[in-house]
Specification:
11 helices; alpha/beta; 6-stranded mixed β-sheet; about 450 residues
């Protein structure tokens, strides 16, 4: 069995305040939106699937840096560039035409030029024709393609991306052959939640270096396991084979590693620190899992510090995790302790169950009986047609694909189906067909009523 080929990743890098996020927003277009207007949930996306000249790629925003303990902000920028080079298929360097060519731009460019991966240069904030001459000095960086752009106004923004995509290999990276039934599981989570300890516990041996220092792990490592469930390949985003000082490339720079792992996996184990509770950064990682439509198990590690299942704080901790991560509330939550091994034995069986559920196809007749029952139990709000409000009618549904399960529902006016009703249908679909923990895609299409 050959693993599906992953989409190429293009990372946007550069100094702070050069317009990286503005450019990312431009590429993401109208789909770039708040996930939930609720405190405690991730509010912005850092990866977007974009079609460029008929080819689909993943664009990753690496904005948001923390100064390196030794090298300051300059060290953080350099580390971010190294992460991008290691994990991405191509890199787009953004500079500021109005600030001019700065030494930090030159250092980043020198780092990127040493790579054999495609690199492009976007000279941003060329917002008026009279600013065009400011682009000339950036030729000294020696990076092609180079384009003067305005991310704010969209001027030439897509030209530089198109030129960079043209330089990607004709075929995406080919993954190795896997035997029938083998399952790829990505272990993802913010730094220092115990990902490496968990992988070691699952593997039954010290396969990954473990240290208390956040950021010890810098590269992805694949571990092949054989057990009663079959073959599992753990894609560990926390897998450095030697301890090292933290290369503080920032939360978003490290996100490239998680995106790469998720692209290569079929199920995710989202590891959080139960003793600390779910954080905003946990929500960001969960957002990556959701955006890539991977079934997920929430692994509440360090549960021994909570006091175990019978501890006085167990219920409160569960409730808090669910509240923080409620946009993936259907994902199973399994308390574990990588230190003691408690609960770890359930993880791979649960991952395989989710994968099997994600591949389920629903017969059309059964699906349409469900649709009729769901819409009869709770009818959608009235739609607007001219000056007359009319009920929205659903006609039929069909499943277009599996893994993730994707469905098209035909109705009179998709534009006026509210988001909460979409969620209602999605939740009822999960309940009816056992899709709990599995991302479900619903697309509404218009069908005219017969006279």
């Amino acid at each position: 069995m050959t693993q599906p080929r992953a989409l190429p990743i293009i990372a946007i890098v550069g100094r702070p305040n050069v317009g990286k996020s503005t450019l990312f927003n431009r590429y993401a277009g109208h789909r770039r939106a708040l996930v939930e207007d609720t405190p405690g949930l991730t509010r912005d996306r850092i990866v977007e699937e974009v079609e460029v000249e008929g080819r689909r790629v993943l664009v990753v925003d690496t904005a948001g840096l923390e100064p390196d303990a030794e090298g300051g902000l300059s060290g953080a920028i350099q580390a971010q560039a190294r992460t991008a080079l290691r994990e991405a298929d191509a890199v787009l360097l953004v500079v500021d035409a109005q600030a001019g060519l700065l030494p930090e731009d030159e250092r980043i460019a020198a780092e990127l030029r040493r790579s054999d991966k495609p690199v492009g240069l976007a000279v941003n904030k060329v917002d008026h024709p009279r600013h065009a001459e400011r682009v000339l000095e950036f030729h000294a960086l020696g990076i092609e393609p180079m384009e003067g752009i305005s991310a704010a106004h969209g001027i030439h923004a897509f030209e530089v991306l198109e030129a960079l995509v043209e330089r990607l290999p004709a075929q995406p990276e080919v993954t190795e052959e896997l035997e029938e039934g083998a399952l790829r599981v990505a272990v993802v989570g913010r730094p220092n939640v115990g990902k490496s300890s968990l992988v070691n516990r699952l593997a039954g041996e010290e396969r990954v270096v473990v240290a208390d220092e956040p950021g010890t792990t810098r590269d992805s490592i694949d571990l092949r396991l054989e057990d009663e469930f079959g073959t599992t390949v753990l894609v560990d985003t926390a897998g450095l084979r030697r301890t090292a000082k933290r290369e503080a490339g920032g939360e978003r720079g490290g996100a490239i590693m998680a995106v790469r792992a998720l692209e290569r996996a079929q199920v995710a184990l989202l590891v959080i620190d139960a003793a600390e509770g779910a954080t905003e950064q946990d929500a960001r990682v969960a957002g990556l899992v959701r955006d890539r439509c991977r079934p997920a198990v929430i692994v509440a590690n360090k549960w021994d510090r909570v006091g175990g299942e019978d501890g006085p704080d167990a219920g409160r901790v569960r409730e808090e995790i669910r509240r923080r991560l409620r946009f993936i509330e259907d994902a199973p939550l399994i308390p574990v302790s990588a230190k003691t091994g408690a609960g770890v034995g359930r993880l791979l069986a649960e991952a395989r169950r989710l994968h099997e559920n994600a591949g389920r196809r629903i017969p059309t007749a059964e699906l349409n009986r469900w649709l009729e029952d769901a819409t009869a139990r709770h009818q959608p709000a009235l739609g607007q047609r001219g000056v007359t409000r009319r009920p929205i009618r659903f006609f039929y549904a069909t499943q277009t694909s599996a893994t993730p399960p994707s469905f098209v529902l035909f109705c009179t006016d998709p534009r006026h189906v509210k988001e909460d009703y979409r969620r209602y249908l999605e939740n009822r679909l999960r309940e009816a067909f056992g899709y709990q923990g599995v991302p479900v895609r619903l697309r509404l299409r218009a069908r005219r009523e017969r006279a």
